[in-house]
Design goal:
Blueprint lengths: L14 E3 L17 H11 L2 E3 L1 H4 L11 E3 L2 H8 L3 E4 L6 E5 L5 H18 L3 E6 L6 E5 L5 E5 L2 H13 L4 E7 L7 H7 L8 H15 L3 E6 L23 H9 L3 E4 L17 E5 L6 H8 L4 E4 L9 H4 L4 E3 L2 H12 L16
Parallel strand pairs: 1-2, 1-12, 2-3, 5-6, 5-9, 9-10, 12-13, 13-14
Antiparallel strand pairs: 4-11, 7-8
Length: about 350
């Protein structure tokens, strides 16, 4: 139990789930395949903070009031104590479209937004198109992790500022991404053996916008539908269901928490602060992210899950004390133990003597 909350054993234990983007995690590196783990950990903790990479499954999504959908750079700021997270009933989601999207794809995305308004009752609008194409490019780092850049970042920020001024309280971005249906990397990813080549560039877009505007933001790439692949890996199947990836982003942002500067977090808001956090769950080979390290510095229990990826930034390499978990099922058990005020060491054998 987190001492800072002063809560009873049955109270929620606010927890953070991080599965980094674009590093090929076996679980969470594909089209929303981290969702089952997030749902389980939300049930175990009663309150889970996580990021779009975990929750986004293209046309598939899952809304759970116990799960807080927070963009990656905002998670870093939360962990550093710079902002608090203010739960809300709903957000007004502005839709920002890249001028580089061709007309048919543009209409497909607008129709997804209309469908989410009509079928899910989401508050969407206004819609704005950038004044020039964003010109997204893709690349890979030395580790093989995906990355990317924008040719016209100022156009993204201009459009975002206009949406905020027009009353949007969260922003969904759709940018036209380069594509090569015959690329070996794409074929490997669809077969479950590669890295999501889009994820790194998506993170650049949402990080830039959220940092500039202080609003919840998330991104969906605009791409042409791919040819049928009967051998598709189940983890990539969520991306094959329609023309866009936008539906999950709109649903996630519709109840994403407000990003509240810490100086204002105490004024009548039931906001989550870093001192409320009771545990962090992250892949055992990817412990070097800013949010995870900031939490470790505060002594927040860190659960390191065996979830293979391209990186080997381990507890041993960083000299961190962790609670190891062989799976997210085991991580959920550890969260329950912490929530109940149990010392996880009491659950392992042999049990070391005190002296």
């Amino acid at each position: 139990m987190n001492k800072a909350t002063g809560g009873r054993a049955a109270d929620p234990l606010p927890s953070l789930l991080v599965i980094p983007t674009g590093i090929g995690c076996a679980l969470g590196g594909y089209a929303g395949d981290g969702l089952p783990a997030a749902r389980l950990l939300a049930a175990a903790s009663g309150c889970l903070i996580t990021h779009p990479n975990v929750m986004n499954g293209a046309a598939l999504y899952w809304s759970d009031p116990r799960i807080h959908y927070v963009e990656g750079s905002a998670l870093d700021r939360f962990a550093a104590g710079a902002i608090a997270l203010g739960p809300v009933r709903h957000q007004r989601v502005g839709l920002l479209l890249d001028a580089g999207i061709d007309e048919e794809l543009r209409w497909r995305h607008l129709q997804v937004a209309e469908g989410c308004r009509a079928s899910l009752g989401l508050d969407i609008g206004p819609v704005l198109t950038t004044d020039v194409p964003l010109e997204v490019s893709l690349s890979q780092g030395p580790s093989g992790a995906s990355w990317g850049s924008l040719g016209n970042p100022a156009a993204l920020l201009r459009a975002g500022q206009q949406l905020k001024a027009a009353g949007a309280t969260a922003i969904a971005v759709v940018a036209r991404f380069p594509e090569d249906p015959q690329a070996e990397a794409l074929a490997a990813y669809r077969q479950g053996a590669g890295v999501d080549a889009l994820a790194g560039a998506e993170a650049v877009i949402s990080h830039l916008l959220s940092l500039e505007l202080g609003l919840p933001c998330a991104h969906a790439p605009a791409l042409s539908p791919l040819p049928l692949d009967p051998g598709l890996d189940p983890r990539a199947a969520g991306e094959e269901l329609g023309y866009t990836f936008l539906a999950c982003v709109l649903v996630g942002l519709s109840r994403a928490p407000d990003l509240i500067p810490l100086a204002g977090a105490g004024r009548g808001r039931n906001a989550l602060r870093i001192d409320d956090l009771g545990a962090v769950v992250a892949p055992a080979g990817a412990l070097g992210g800013a949010a995870v390290l900031a939490c470790a510095e505060r002594g927040i229990p860190l659960i390191a899950v065996d979830n293979p990826c391209l990186l080997q930034v381990t507890a041993e390499a960083l000299n961190l004390e962790v609670l190891p978990a062989a799976s997210y099922c085991e991580a959920a058990g550890l969260l329950v133990a912490l929530r109940e005020g149990l010392n996880p060491a009491a659950l392992y054998r042999p049990l070391a003597r005190l002296a």
